[in-house]
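Tokens as discussed.
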């Protein structure tokens, strides 16, 4: 009898191969054949799950988004359970920064694919989802904190997160995690100082 394949595990192997290739060489290096070679599979095995390169790339990006979202939902659950709002907000924002190997990996993949949105409609949709999702999260955090001028402050903080993320994966040497946190904390402290009567939930 043919050997049963664990579909979830096989997809994960393919995604991890995509991520390694994207980090090493960008979208052009993540062809179906190279992904198959990287995953130790034949190309037919990859085509069993993905018909073409664009479908594979967008699916891989959504896998990254799902991983980040899972951590954010866990942080939100802690907040709903009574965690300190300021600490919970900081923890959620840190999920969006390249502070360790996992988050550098994720940030690199997301920026690499989002940049392709200038040329490819499927990636443009993904880029918009990343952009809008970041701002929805930050808007919720700032609204819970009772921050004045929440629309402007959302964009200011989102731009800070975007900039730190971009510099964290492109600049050589990259800003250290400690420096990224220093910049984030300075900004959050400014917000607290200018909104002393913010709401607490």
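Sequence:
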């Amino acid at each position: 009898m043919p050997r049963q394949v664990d579909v979830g595990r096989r997809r994960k192997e393919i995604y991890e191969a995509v991520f390694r290739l994207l980090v090493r060489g960008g979208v052009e290096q993540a062809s179906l054949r190279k992904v198959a070679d990287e995953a130790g599979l034949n190309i037919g095995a990859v085509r069993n799950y993905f018909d073409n390169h664009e479908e594979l790339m967008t699916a891989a990006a959504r896998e990254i988004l799902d991983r980040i979202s899972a951590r954010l939902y866990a942080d939100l659950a802690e907040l709903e359970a009574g965690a300190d709002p300021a600490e919970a907000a900081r923890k959620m924002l840190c999920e969006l920064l390249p502070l360790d190997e996992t988050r550098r990996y994720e940030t690199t993949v997301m920026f690499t694919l989002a940049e392709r949105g200038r040329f490819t409609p499927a990636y443009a949709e993904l880029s918009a989802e990343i952009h809008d999702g970041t701002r929805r999260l930050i808007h919720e955090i700032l609204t819970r904190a009772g921050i004045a001028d929440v629309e402007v402050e959302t964009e200011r903080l989102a731009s800070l997160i975007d900039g730190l993320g971009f510099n964290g994966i492109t600049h050589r040497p990259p800003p250290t995690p400690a420096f990224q946190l220093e910049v984030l904390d300075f900004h959050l402290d400014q917000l607290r100082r200018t909104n002393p009567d913010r709401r607490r939930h």
